[in-house]
Every structure is written in structure tokens, then in C-alpha cells.
Amino acid sequence: MTSRRIGSDERRPARRRNPRGEGGRLRDDLLDAAGELIAEAGRVDAASIRAVARRAGVSAPSVYLHFADRDELVQAVLKQRFNDLHDAITEALESSGPEATAAEFLFAGCAAYVAYGLDHPGPYRVLFDSPAEPFTPDASAAADAALGLLIDGVAACQAAGSDIPGTPLEVATMVWCALHGIVMLRVANPLFAWPPVDDALRVMLERLVGLPAEG
């Protein structure tokens, strides 16, 4: 499903004041607006306080009710997007069922990562294709949690007897690079005759880490 792109010089209709106790709704709107601006421009400086306020349909002072400055707003966007990625992967792992093998769990996690990137190219670009300042501890923890699922998946396969050379972190980093390549190449060149995603993931897992994707 696609949505109408709003140009940086446009603004949403003026928002109605939230009912008492629902100020968090405005905060979410501001995060969405900032994320859109960063994804569209490929630069974090596109999410200025004025630009975010205009996109969200509020006044600039309203932004400062939730964020001290632009940097805090950008870091909150990064934290939210990494949490979204983490949740998408976690949901896929839970859907695999208790009888799934370690290899099947790893495949499910990798498939969920790619699906998130392809289904949400804007938010994905905010995370990995937009130069940003060093992460704050909160944003860094969210990023580590998302990558940690991949590290845990590799470690579980090694514990189950898979002959994968390297530490879980080393192997997970290599797999992450491949997953990122799958996402970005398909987003950048959607008309190329790419193989089905599941097929590409199976080949990648078998050849990069010597792990059959289907346990």
C-alpha cells in the first residue's frame, strides 16, 4: 500500500488539539513527520524543527513540548525505527512455532528483516541510508537489540551443531551485510529480474555460512 508523498514545502491540515491525556499522539505525529523528511532527503538535517512542524501541521513551539532540539528528535526517530524492526523480526520468530529448528528460526529472522526493508523502504532508509550523528545510548540500545536477534540466531545454530566458523557476532555481521544488500539493491533497481526473496536467502545462508536454511 502506498501513501501520497507530501512535499517538504507542504503541510498537513492544522491538527485539532488532542484531548487531555493524549499528547502522546502529537509526539507520534512528529516522529512520523521527521522520519518522512529524513527518508525523502537522505539527510538528517532535513528534519529541522520548522520543517517537522510544517509537515505535522503544528507550530514550531509545539515540537519543543516533546523534544528539546532537533538532535533529540532525530535520535527518537532512530530508536523508534529500530524498535519497529526488532518487533517485526520478533513476530516472525514467534510465528515459527516451538517445533522450528535453529536453522528455521535463523531463516525466519532473516526473511523478516528483508521483508521489513522492502515493505517500509522509507523507515529502512532512515536507519541505514541516512548519515546521522553518533547514536545516543537509547538509540544504540535499540539498534543492538535488533542486531542481537541475528546474533542469537547464529549462536543457536552453532549450539545445535552447525559448523559455522567464527564468533556469533562475526557471522551475524557478515549475514547482516548480505541482508542489507538484498534490500537496497531491490529497492534501487526493482525492474531487475531478481529471484524470489526466499530463494535468495536460502542461497545466501548456504553459501555464506554453510547453513542450510531449511534445517
Which properties best describe this structure?
mainly alpha; 2 domains; disordered N terminus
Describe it for me?
This protein is mostly helical and about 220 residues long. The chain folds into two domains: about 1-65, no CATH class; about 75-210, Tetracycline Repressor, domain 2 (Orthogonal Bundle). The protein contains nine helices and no strands. It has helices at about 25-40, 50-55, 60-65, 70-95, 100-120, 120-130, 135-160, 170-190, 195-210. α4 crosses α5, α4 packs across α6 (about 120-130) and α5 (about 100-120) packs antiparallel against α7 (about 135-160). The longest helix is centred in the middle third of the chain and has 26 residues, at about 70-95. The protein is elongated, with a radius of gyration of 19 Å. The model is unreliable at about 1-20 (pLDDT under 50).
Furnish the topology, listing elements before pairings:
Blueprint: H1 23-41, H2 49-56, H3 60-63, H4 70-95, H5 102-119, H6 121-128, H7 137-159, H8 168-188, H9 197-209
Helix pairs in contact: 1-2, 1-4, 1-6, 4-5, 4-6, 4-7, 5-6, 5-7, 5-8, 5-9, 7-8, 8-9
